[in-house]
């Protein structure tokens, strides 16, 4: 029995399981940032506007508004710096790439919430 456990641990790649999310969802990404010899976790909350790539190369783009300036950040799904991902709300959208949000301002840039 002990040999089986040791073999399973050696083959474990350490990949983390994240919750299922799609374009239009509002998520919070806890991202580890190293500044010199200090390390902190930054909460990045925004709308997923794109998911691209296949398998290990999958990445997603999160857009948030910071002082009326749109900020987008691309996260690789298998990045070791991602501490956690939480889905805050699910959005109701018709397409997978939400680039049109870049031109919208204020209340027009809101996404409808999914009702069950």
TrEMBL record:
One of its GO terms (molecular function) is structural constituent of ribosome. Keywords: Ribonucleoprotein, Ribosomal protein. InterPro entries: Ribosomal_bL19, Ribosomal_bL19_sf, Translation_prot_SH3-like_sf. GO terms for cellular component: cytosolic large ribosomal subunit. It holds the Pfam family Ribosomal_L19. GO terms for biological process: translation. This protein is located at the 30S-50S ribosomal subunit interface and may play a role in the structure and function of the aminoacyl-tRNA binding site. Belongs to the bacterial ribosomal protein bL19 family. This is Large ribosomal subunit protein bL19. The gene is rplS.
């Amino acid at each position: 029995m002990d040999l089986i456990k040791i073999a399973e641990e050696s083959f474990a790649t350490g990949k983390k399981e994240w919750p299922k999310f799609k374009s239009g969802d509002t998520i919070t990404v806890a991202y580890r940032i190293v500044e010199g010899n200090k390390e902190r976790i930054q909460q990045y909350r925004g709308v997923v506007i794109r998911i691209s790539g296949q398998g290990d190369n999958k990445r997603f783009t999160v857009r948030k508004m910071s002082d009326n300036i749109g900020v987008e950040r691309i996260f690789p799904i298998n990045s070791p710096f991602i501490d956690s991902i939480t889905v805050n709300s699910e959005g109701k959208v018709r397409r997978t790439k939400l680039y049109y949000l870049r031109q919208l301002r204020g209340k027009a840039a809101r996404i409808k919430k999914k009702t069950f």
